[in-house]
Write a structure and sequence with these properties.
two-stranded antiparallel sheet, 57% helix, 2 strands, mainly alpha
Length: 178
Amino acid sequence: MTEAVVQGVEKPANGLKGLAHLRHDILSGVVVSLVSLPLSSGIAIASGVPPIYGLMSAIIAGLLFPFIGGAYMTISGPAAGLAPALVAVMTSLGGAGDADATGPGYPWLLCVIFLVGCAQLLIALGGLARYAAAIPIAVVEGMLCSIGLMIIVKQFPSFFGFADRVTAKEFYQFVLCY
């Protein structure tokens, strides 16, 4: 009896062994990508890019992750926690966009995302990922709170009946202008 089969229950495996459950993984990937379409478009808008970028990322991720493999109890989906970081990076690298167009900082953001991905691979291969648990929960909760505030404040113009194009880019501009 192998380690993967314990008491008649087979645990999913990563790598080539995980391909045994590929049809189930593809089905779950499609379901997750369909469920995450509205969330992904909202996160894209909150990140300062057009919603189609979020839709593309949800579809690509939902169809790609089943082939890469995952963990036994993991769901791959949109990461709302990155929205404030993405806007901050785009703003500092040349300007964030809006729901209609990307800003001049977007190409630089793609470079940053690529470099961060390379750093994550090095951290994972070096066995250093376990040190991420040292980040205090207050930091994570603060980041999630900022996401909620961004979403709420970006709805102010619509709530107060402003129908024209919103030119505010910063948090304080949304609050003070309306």
